[in-house]
Amino acid sequence: MARKCFYSFHYKPDNWRAGQVRNMGVIEGNQPVSDNDWESVTKGGDSSITKWISDQMSGRSCTVLLIGSGTAGRKWINHEIEKTWKDKKGLLGVYVHNLKNKDSDQSTKGSNPFAGFKVSEKPLSDIVKTYDPPYSASNDVYKYISDNLASWVEKAIEIRNAY
What we know:
Blueprint: E1 4-8, H1 11-22, E2 28-29, H2 35-43, H3 45-57, E3 62-67, H4 75-86, E4 90-95, E5 118-119, E6 122-123, E7 130-131, H5 138-161
Parallel strand pairs: 1-2, 1-3, 3-4, 4-7
Antiparallel strand pairs: 5-6
């Protein structure tokens, strides 16, 4: 049975890449939000966004953070990292910069979004695993993520349960 996971990502530049990972069907993810739905959520301000994130994370055992070139340090990405850890859910990162977007463009590798957090003075980036597919061709990156995502999720849950 596939794990239920929350996908976190920088919406505008990485929505297409995130869609590819979601559509793999390796794990059960939260439903994609359309541009119009996201506009409705954001019009409600911070409290509306916070509630939407909380509702989306409910019943999930892990957060899969899809890391693009500008993911690290974003307000809502940071919120999702903090909430995931506080809620004792598994947490992992997958670099998606080498997956092509709708225009067949790849991106540059972004910084580790876990680097700015600490758990008992230990950097979260030393605890939470990130995976950077060792390929530059988009098809190979896709296959590597598809072949490994389920085991990465299990490892993330195991790591979180140890803390």
